[in-house]
Each structure stands twice: as structure tokens, then as C-alpha cells.
Amino acid sequence: MNTLSCPSRSSAPRNLFSYRKYWASRFGTAPYLPMSRAEMDLLGWDSCDIILVTGDAYIDHPSFGMALIGRLLEAQGFRVGIISQPDWLSAKAFRALGKPNLFFGVTAGNMDSMVNRYTADRKPRSDDAYTPNGEANKRPDHAVVVYAQRCREAFPGSNVVIGSIEASLRRIAHYDYWSDKVRRSVLPDSKADLLIFGSAERAIVELAHRLAAGEPIATIRDLRGTAFMVPRGWLPAAGWAEIDASEVDTPGLLVRHADPYAMTPEAGKEAACASRPALSESRSGAARTQVIQMQFQSHLRMPKLDRTRTAIRLPSYEEVAADPVLYAHASRTFHVESNPGNARALIQAHGERDVWLNPPPIPLSTAEMDGVFASPFQRRPHPCYGDAKIPAFEMIRFSINIMRGCFGGCTFCSITEHEGRIIQSRSEQSILHEIEEIRDKTPGFTGIISDLGGPTANMYRLACKDPKIESACRRLSCVYPGICENLDTDHTPLLQLYRKARALPGVKKVLISSGLRYDLALRDPQYVKELVSHHVGGYLKIAPEHTEDGPLAHMMKPGMSSYEQFRILFEKFSKEAGKEQYLIPYFIAAHPGTTDQDMLNLALWLKRNHFRLDQVQTFLPTPLAIATAMYHSRKNPLKKVGRDSDLVETVRGARQRRLHKAFLRYHDPENWPLLREALKQMGRADLIGNGRKQLIPFFQPAGTGLRGAPPERVQTAGRAAVPARVVAANAARTKC
């Protein structure tokens, strides 16, 4: 049996491109990865070694996961086919390319299928950006589960591997917003042999070569970045130890279950410990106390364990489903154990079996990142789509991904759970070559690169100054509550990249559209000047997310002082460059930790600063995010959690969520009736009126807000009917 070890980042994993190519490499490179038997015949293939099933249209472009993974596996010598957006109502579509020799690789696509299909109000979306012509309903709910089951039905003996963001974020028991309950890990529901989480390159390349060498998938248990089902209590080999999650981070007093955690004493205090599962309800208090003390003393004598051969047992699915406090505790433990340099394996029981998670994958080196992006992508959709427009492709066709990962740690964001906190950057040469590829290959290129970025615009090549510190660190963010002193914030490599990119022949302008981390940018004013002078197309989007300290603390976002400092620099450098440019701030409504008063304060800030937002977002709890744990449990996993810990203000009701969104669009007449009612309840009726310092007017324009109102005269609360012509005049006067 292979044994798992957990090396630090400094340990050198096997290079992605050091494997001997599989014999099928003799077939050469496919113009497009085949989606039909006819295409396979043209390539001379009798079968596919690997078949990738995806909920997205197949676009042969490195911004789309299936193309990136498919081309990487092709570079290893494997024959890779694509089944895109299959009809999931039967197994017929899953037999289109025959049985794969090695495995089916199943993904919902670039987005979680539930996020793709439903809004934050749980309403079905009318379109799908990853489908030809934006057509909706081309993938099922929980697509990974459905697709994996259909693969099994199509070819019962085939290996099934699931991955991408949907599988990553659902790899353990997780709160599902759309059903409003805790669901099991996607593994037992999908019946998959293996789950690959995070950036999949290392795991999927090694898996393919080992399966090709004849190794059964059931024995492959040592790949980092993978999860699988095992019998209860399974350990990889002799010498491994299992510890309870309460020994990593002890929750507060737990009394609801028969299986509470043993407590450790608070600093400077003597503390009584809760019992372990062996204690029965019939035991006397004295006997219970004696057993507790013996267990606690045993815990104190426990020898220091080898981290690379230790697994942490999280509360079981059944426990976290029944107890929100244990859910929050499991979330906290999960996130603490997320650094590839020191993370331990995790175990979570689901009935009589365990879900076993190996530590996260070791990040790719720059050379490996370059190799992944160097495949011969066509940079366009598969020809089978004809002239159909695929909105997601139209959005990114002239953009370039220069890095992955994010060390910001925003609690509402899923990037950290999926890509990790360590930044993986491509080389300057690789990026410049891709710009030339766009210039030479992509139809419709007019000389404008729409983005050089990734999860953020300005984390390229930023990293911890000391690899040893990085490997040992357990901070959830490198920039909150302040920027870590060990973080290198030098933007010089990014500045050089910008200058060389815009100097390439045929390139007229390089825009930066990815979200800017402005607190980092403030550390390098020269970067801000370069950005503002050359790379802003009139508007620059940034995301303060809120103005109030309470919500910002629950988001792990910087305060508004950083925004104001950046705004001053932005306006200064725009003026010096002789350009009229504007900042467009993004805000979130109804985030955990947000009160009605917080949203009112934000609305007043927007009005004072003359912002009328067209597009706003309401908090959407995505699986595994820390903010989702706050939403579900009303506890804060950023701190130790317990029954007596502070409750997090949580906006759950549909009316209150609409209200918080309405505050962001205070200028929309459709929202005025709801806002008037709320302001009166909050004792702020003084903000209702036609003055400049008031938030919303008394009048209500005809045909808005109050359904069924007369066309010419609208009754407003507490006032006589107002003629329509007066409404129009007042509306003109009160514009910001």
C-alpha cells in the first residue's frame, strides 16, 4: 500500500512534465478534443483513454477548466474526449464516445451548478453564460452527482473521478443554501471512485499515469488534493495517528449531543471537561467527573505527533447536520488545515464510512504553470456550435490569466477553498507569448487586451518573504486585519509586465478588469500611477463591499480609510494623466454580521458620494465558505465557537434581504415603499422627504412601487395625492 506524506512547499514534488509520455502520443495533437465518434475516426482513435464530462460548452481556451485539463492530459500522451452538456435524463449521451480506457472525469463546469442555475433569491436564472446563445436549463441541479451517476449507468465498470469547483466546495458535509440544509459530501452521493479538489493538475496527471500502468484506482490513496470513501477507522499505514478536531481547536461548552468534545482549560483557569462518547447518561456525577479527569490527564500526556502522519477527525455528517455549532467548529478546523505546507489529512464520518481528505496539492512552479498554458489551444469554441455566441467566451476572449490563488481570505469568496492562498504565477515570457497568440489567432482582435489578471489584479508574484514562515503559517488572510510584515508587496514585476505587454506590436491598449486589491496597491504608489495612467478604460472596478466596521470584520475586508486613500491617489493620477476616469465600487447586501442600521449607513454614504448603483449583489452562501458557516450557524468561525459565543447578525428572511438590497438602490422608485416603511420602523422618518440630505422622497412616481396605483395620481403614506407633473419635477430636483 502506498503511504501518504505531507511535505512542505519547499519539498520538491514531481514535475508535471517529467513523466514518460503514454504510448498514444503517437497520434499527435488533436485540432479540438473530439466530441463525437466521427471526430475520433478522423484522428484514427478506436477509443478514448479519458473522457471529460462537463456542464459547460466546450471552448478550447485556457480560461475553461475542461480545456485546460484536457490539453494537459493530451500533452502527457493520452487520448482525451469531451462530452459537453449531455442530456442527463438517460445514459445514452454518456455512451457517445464509448467506454474510456482509464476514467471518466466529471465536472459541473467553471461554476457550481446551483450558483449557475439560481439567483441569490433562489429564483431560476433566465440564461447561462457558459451555454451557446446563453440558453438556460442545459445542466441539472447538482450536476456532478447526476453526471457521475449517469457515467456509472452507461458503463458500470468504469472508473469515475469528480473534480472542479463544485466537487471542491462540496468535498465534506456542507450547508446547501438552495435546500436550506446540510448535505453530505458529494462523494457518497455521486458514487465516484475519487474526488480531486483544488487545482487538479498534479493529481490528475499522476492518477492517469498510474492507472495506465495498471494500478487499481481503489489502491491509489496517497495523492495530495484527493478525497475518497473508506471503511470507518481506516488509516493508510502503520504509524499513522488519528486525533479529534477538538484537540486542534476546542469549541465552547457543548451539551446537546451524547458525543460532546473534551474541553481544555482556559488560560489561567481550572476548567471542567465535557465527557467523551463512552460516558452513558446513567452514570453518576462523581463517576462522570472521574472519567473526565482521567481522559484530560491522558490528553496532557499525549506525545507530539508527526504532522505528516496524522489525520484529524471532524465532527461527522450526522453531527454537523444536527448541530450548527459543530458545523461552525468543523468549518473553522477545515480552514485552519488548508496550508499545503502544514495541513493534515481530514476525516469525516458519513454513516458507517469515512470521507478521507488528503492534504491540499503543492502549488505549481512558474515553469509548470507556463507548461500548462502552453498547449496548442484554438482559443475559440468547438466548431459544432457554429455561429452561436457563448457569453462567457465573449467576455474573456481577449483576456489573459496571469496567476491563480488569493491570500485575501474574504469570508464570502470561494477562491481560497478551491485555489488556495499561495499565489501561482506564470512567467513574463509565457504571458507575452499568449498576447501574441491572441493577436495572431483570435478573430475580431482590435488591439485591445481586455484583462491581465486572475482572481485579483495585483497579486502577481507576491508571496511570503520566507518559505519556512509560509509553510508554518495558519493565518486565514495575509492582509487582514492588516498586511502581514512577512508579505512581499513589491509590484515591480507586475509593472514590468504591463509595460512590455503594451509595447508589443499590434497591441494598442492593455486594460485591467480583474478586481483590484487596493490596500495592497497603496503599498506601491508607482503601481497605482502606472495603472491609472495606462490601464483604466474610463472606469475601474474595486470592491470595498461595505462601509461599516461590523460587516467588514465578518468579511475580513479592510476599512474605508484604505478606500479613501486609494480614491485620492486615483483622482490625483487621473488628473495628472489628463484623463476623466471613475471608480466603480462594489458592495454586498445582507452579508452575515450586517444590521439594518449598517445598510442605512451605507445608503447614506452612497448618496453623499453621488453613487447610484445599477448592479448590486445580495450575499449568496456558497458551500464551504466561512461566511456561509456564519449564515447557517449564526456563529463566527473566525473565532473559537461554542454555545455561549456571540451570535452573528444574520439576514435570512426574504423581506429583510430585499430591504438590504433596496438600501443599495435607494434611488430606485420601486424600492421607496419598502424603504419608507423600514425607515419609520427604525425611527428615521426624518430621512423621508425631498431635501438633499434625505434618502428617499415622499412622492411615489406613477406606475412604480405601489402596484395597481392610478396612472396620474399616487397616494403616498401620510400625505395627500401628488399630481404626476409634480412628481416628475421633484424627481429632477432630487437627483444626486
Automatic annotation (TrEMBL):
The keyword Nucleotide-binding does not apply. It comes from the Bacteria. SMART domains: Elp3. [4Fe-4S] cluster binds at residues 406, 410, 413. Residues 392-658 form the Radical SAM core domain. Its cofactor is [4Fe-4S] cluster. Keywords: 4Fe-4S, Iron, Iron-sulfur, Metal-binding, S-adenosyl-L-methionine. The keyword Iron applies. Binds 1 [4Fe-4S] cluster. The cluster is coordinated with 3 cysteines and an exchangeable S-adenosyl-L-methionine. Belongs to the UPF0313 family. HAMAP family: UPF0313 (MF_01251). This is YgiQ family radical SAM protein. It comes from Candidatus Accumulibacter contiguus.
